[in-house]
Amino acid sequence: MKRLDRRQLLLRGAALAVAVPALGGLAGAPTARAAEPPSDRLPSRAEIVDVLRRVADQWIGSHDDPGDNAWARATFFSGLMALFRLSEDDRYLDYARSWAEQHDYAVISGPTTRHADNFTAMQAYLDLYEVEPDEQKLAAAEATLRHMITDQPDKNDDWWWDDALHMGMPPFARFGRLRTDTAYWNKLYALYDHTKNAEGGPGLYDPDTDLWYRDAKFLPGGIVSPSGKPVVWSRGNGWVAAGHVKTLKALPADAAHVPEYRETLTHLVTALAPLQRSDGFWNVNLADPAHFPGPETSGTSFFTYGTAYAVGAGLVDRDTYLPVAARAWNGLVATAVHPNGFLGYVQGVGDRPDSSQPVTYDSTADFGVGGFLLAGTELASLTS
């Protein structure tokens, strides 16, 4: 299939997506479906913070044990630390600190690991370090990144799936700035460039649609949806958006490759806008609205985060794209947030639209909550 044809499929999908309602999960399952399309007006800062607190407090209250330090739980703590910075509520800091101390600020599989998932916890460790500096908090993380830089320095194919950009990019960006050492940034770009432009042959980024394939299995000629359309996974693109946001937040404006990171995020945010559904969400398959067409929270949260950042950073026009982020947020709050703060419609662990189905009002996951917290805190920064 030619890339022009894929672009046409996506645009046709967008037209269909506008008419897709907020579908429930299993027959008889409770839903919190919005009766009207969500508003495109941004709520007040106080209203956003109130929802964020409800969601965070519900998760913490139901998880006395803060959990492991793998990528999923670490993503939650990235979001929780963002909420701490916004709210200055020490309860969130205390919970995050207890989690990190429980794991001795370690990296899963030790300092020789090259797997990006194992790097995700470094993001929260760095957040905790910034609040309460102590070099021991960064020892394992720094040793792991230094090993990536110095061991097999020409090996740059470790990030073979697009999720890895969220897991791995921000630690390299942040350590480079913290240590004033461009070796971190050079390695970051070498790994990123392979994922974007070489993995699987053409790279996982499609310059004709400005969207990303999850991994090489989904490139043209690979896995397609039941109706024969491309599989362009929502959360995979959400991880890409979040990785770019966190990286740009860390890098100085004049650092090498910042223009490319900014341009790539801008193109992604611009490509997503016409694919937004009438209920504020995005479909799990961005190229096929009929492929599991219900609402899904994690991809939508990360797209909200990316769009809100792009608005605040001046990458996109505020009047055009702030309503996109506001609709997404208002849709999430109306449809996915239970009265007690439980966050539903989160697709579980997987690598494609078919994973962890069905996704229902009662489906949740730690990384989904983290993404929601990141989205809300970024939106709050845009309020007056």
Provide structural commentary.
The model is unreliable at 1-9 and 11-32 (pLDDT under 50). The protein has 384 residues and is mainly alpha-helical. The longest helix has 18 residues, at 318-335. It has a two-stranded antiparallel ribbon with strand order 1-2. It has 13 helices and 2 strands. The protein starts with a helix and ends with a helix. It has one domain (3-21, 39-67, 78-88, 153-380): Glycosyltransferase (Alpha/alpha barrel).
**How many domains would you count in the coordinates?**
1
- What's the CATH topology name? Glycosyltransferase
Q: What is the oligomer described by this structure? A: single chain
> Average pLDDT, to the nearest integer?
93
Query: Taking strands numbered 1, 2, ... along the chain, how are they ordered across the largest sheet?
Result: 1-2
**How many strand elements?**
2
Determine and state the CATH class. Answer: Mainly Alpha
Low-confidence sequence ranges:
1-9, 11-32
Number of helices: 13
Following the backbone from N to C, one meets helices and strands in this order, namely HHHHHHHHEEHHHHH
Q: C-alpha Rg, in Å?
A: 19 Å
Q: Give the second-level CATH assignment, the architecture.
A: Alpha/alpha barrel
| Protein structure class | mainly alpha
Overall 3D geometry?
globular
The share of residues in helices is: 40-55%
Please state roughly what percent of the residues sit in beta strands, choosing from under 5%, 5-15%, 15-25%, 25-35%, 35-45% or over 45%. under 5%
Largest sheet: 2 strands, antiparallel
